[in-house]
């Protein structure tokens, strides 16, 4: 039985895409083999990768002075690749710390360049983002890095930071394609695939041309944006199955009406869930209202000793993976693009019933 899977990542994928992949599994496009068994250099596969790139460009309206790279090593790999590609050891960079993923990016960057953390939301226990007007980005910074959606804390920026001429670099792992964004406001966007793009093993990097070709001597070629861009992300064997699946998902997104339509659905899903939490007098979400994530919704109940019961009963009802991140406890519902409204409605109904029985 197919469940509603609220996992934070790897996360639920659209059923229609899984069914198509199943149908094509053993005989892809009449080749007599699966897409995983086809050469990445073959005409047929190169077309898959090109289609995936073109569809992503359409969906996000990516300007022509940006390259789209399909890399490996996840978003975590980019925590290192970004400083190696666009800084020297003497460079200053600016980082915003809004939670656990920002923090990991900062720790890694510090090994490679100077890091100024120009905002740190520790005082709010990472339940909000810095005020737009409060940010002072040093003019000499090589870039400003931030995490538009903190997957663990459930905190999402309602704005894009203004940074003058300093390029904005953003870890969009858990919110890429979830609502329209103006790509031209960014120097570099990166995202591990396993939340909103496809299976794990693929990392998408969208990088402006002026940030390419500056890698430090000794940067491994597979981490060097210029070397990868020159080879169409096929300097070595790319994650072919991941690229194929991402391509199917981009087509699925187009079929849903593109990012505007998906964004509207995501807003409705998030509103439904937050309203249910706020109006319950039982469930609580700790995040400031104007920066609550549309993708990851953490919540608690008054008696933490009932959390295990909640998660187990929900799972029995076909609503799985609702436990909070191991570092924060509580519950968390991740409601990425592939989670249908019906899944959120079922969760809200379960929450009402649980409260009635245990509240
Ligand atoms: C999941 C996640 C990561 C880690 O991605 P990997 O692909 O596992 O390296 C980094 N940043 C954010 C915001 C995430 O949600």
Radius of gyration: 21 Å
Instruction: Output the strand order for the largest sheet.
Output: 2-10-9-8-5-3-4
> Could you tell me which ligands this complex binds, including any ions or cofactors?
pyridoxal-5'-phosphate
CATH architecture classification name of the largest domain:
3-Layer(aba) Sandwich
Structural class: alpha/beta
Estimate the mean pLDDT confidence: 97
The H-and-E topology, N to C, reads as EHHEHEHEEEEEEEHHHEHEEH
By DSSP, the count of extended strands is: 13
Helix fraction, binned, reads 25-40%
Described by the principal axes of the CA atoms, the overall outline is globular
CATH class of the largest domain: Alpha Beta
Q: Per CATH, what is the topology of the largest domain?
A: Aspartate Aminotransferase, domain 2
In terms of per-residue confidence, which ranges show pLDDT below 50 for 5 or more consecutive residues?
A: none
What does this molecule look like?
By secondary structure, this protein is α/β, with parallel strands linked by helices. The protein has two domains: 16-255, Aspartate Aminotransferase, domain 2 (3-Layer(aba) Sandwich); 258-358, Aspartate Aminotransferase, domain 1 (Alpha-Beta Complex). It has nine helices and 13 strands. It has helices at residues 15-24, 43-60, 74-86, 100-110, 225-230, 240-255, 258-280, 307-316, 341-358; strands at residues 4-5, 66-71, 92-97, 114-120, 144-146, 149-150, 155-156, 168-171, 188-192, 203-208, 296-299, 319-320, 331-334. The strands form four sheets. It has a seven-stranded mixed β-sheet. The protein has a two-stranded parallel ribbon with strand order 1-12. A two-stranded antiparallel ribbon has the order 6-7. Strand 6 (149-150) and strand 7 form a beta hairpin. The protein starts with a strand and ends with a helix. The relative contact order is 0.16. The mean pLDDT is 97. The structure holds pyridoxal-5'-phosphate.
């Amino acid at each position: 039985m197919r469940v509603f899977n609220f996992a934070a990542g790897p996360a639920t994928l659209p059923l229609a895409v899984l069914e198509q992949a199943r149908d094509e599994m053993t005989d892809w496009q009449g080749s007599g083999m699966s897409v995983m068994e086809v050469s990445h250099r073959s005409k047929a596969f190169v077309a898959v990768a090109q289609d995936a790139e073109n569809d992503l460009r359409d969906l996000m309206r990516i300007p022509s002075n940006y390259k789209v790279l399909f890399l490996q090593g996840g978003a975590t790999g980019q925590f290192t690749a970004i400083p190696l590609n666009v800084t020297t050891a003497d460079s200053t960079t600016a980082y915003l710390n809004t939670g656990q993923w920002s923090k990991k990016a900062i720790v890694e960057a510090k090994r490679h360049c100077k890091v100024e953390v120009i905002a740190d939301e520790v005082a709010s226990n990472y339940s909000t983002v810095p005020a737009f007007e409060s940010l002072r980005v040093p003019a000499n910074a090589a870039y400003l890095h931030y995490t538009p959606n903190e997957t663990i804390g459930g905190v999402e920026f309602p704005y894009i930071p203004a940074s003058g001429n300093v390029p904005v670099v953003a870890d969009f792992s858990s919110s890429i394609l979830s609502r329209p964004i103006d790509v031209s406001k960014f120097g570099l966007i990166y995202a591990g695939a396993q939340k909103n793009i496809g299976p794990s093993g693929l990392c998408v990097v969208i990088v402006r041309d002026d940030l390419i070709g500056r890698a430090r001597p000794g940067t491994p070629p597979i981490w060097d944006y210029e070397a990868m861009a020159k080879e169409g992300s096929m300097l070595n064997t790319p994650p072919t199955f991941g690229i194929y699946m991402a391509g199917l998902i981009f087509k699925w997104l187009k079929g849903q009406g593109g990012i505007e339509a998906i964004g509207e659905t995501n807003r409705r899903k998030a509103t439904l869930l937050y309203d249910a939490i706020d109006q319950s007098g039982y469930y609580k979400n700790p995040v400031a209202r104007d920066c609550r994530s549309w993708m990851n919704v953490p919540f608690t109940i008054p008696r933490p000793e009932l959390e295990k019961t909640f998660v187990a009963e929900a799972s029995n009802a076909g609503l799985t993976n609702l436990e909070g991140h191991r570092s924060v406890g509580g519950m968390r519902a991740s409601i990425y693009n592939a989670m249908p409204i019906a899944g959120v409605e079922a969760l809200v109904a379960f929450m009402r019933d649980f409260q009635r029985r245990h509240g």
